What we know:
Elements (H helix, E strand, L loop, with lengths): L1 E3 L1 H9 L4 H8 L5 E4 H14 L2 H11 L3 E3 L3 H14 L4 H11 L3 E4 L10 E3 L4
Parallel strand pairs: 1-2, 1-4, 2-3, 4-5
Amino acid sequence: MTVVGSSGWTEFFSDGPLADRFALFLADPAAVVAPTVVILEICRVIRRERSEEDATAAVARMQRTSVADLDQFLALTAADLGLRHRLSMADPIGYATAVCHGAGGVTTDTDFEALRGATVFRRT
């Protein structure tokens, strides 16, 4: 199982320079866990930068994964991990989702470089 961060989904949906790397992780939706906060972020960004139709298509694609709702346990785990690793609000939710699901994580966010189970692809 893998949690793909917002930056990875953005690269994938925008056909960015790292899209092919993230496409490898997204090829099997059954092996992907999508935190609801990531769905929120992607929907908001695509609506703002492209269109409502593109956002709807992106969300539909993300919903084929295992969607992880933000419940109380995950929120409290995220709060602990966020404080421990000095992460901003959305980042610890994604990391806690990975930890709670025994999943790895992939992102371009360098804040995750020192975190166990995280793979960070650097933009050049």
